[in-house]
Specification:
By secondary structure, the protein is mainly alpha-helical. The protein is built from 2 helices and no strands. 81% of the residues lie in helices and 0% in strands. It comes from Elsinoe australis.
């Protein structure tokens, strides 16, 4: 039960960060960087990782 819930939350986090990476790439929008908040560093890490995943997926489809 707990493992399923954690897996679900992890999958949701991946989908959200992939969406944000796509928005950032297609619109050029940036987000405010708060240097004292570790959550922004985590968010930046996930967006960079999902950008690489999107690039791989797009190049594989062509």
């Amino acid at each position: 039960m707990v493992l399923g819930r954690l897996t679900h939350y992890a999958f949701d986090a991946v989908l959200l960060s992939a969406f944000l990476a796509g928005v950032k790439r297609s619109t050029g929008l940036t987000y405010v960087d708060y240097p004292l908040v570790p959550a922004s560093q985590v968010g930046q890490h996930h967006i960079k990782r999902n950008r690489a995943v999107m690039d791989f997926d797009i190049s594989r489809d062509r």
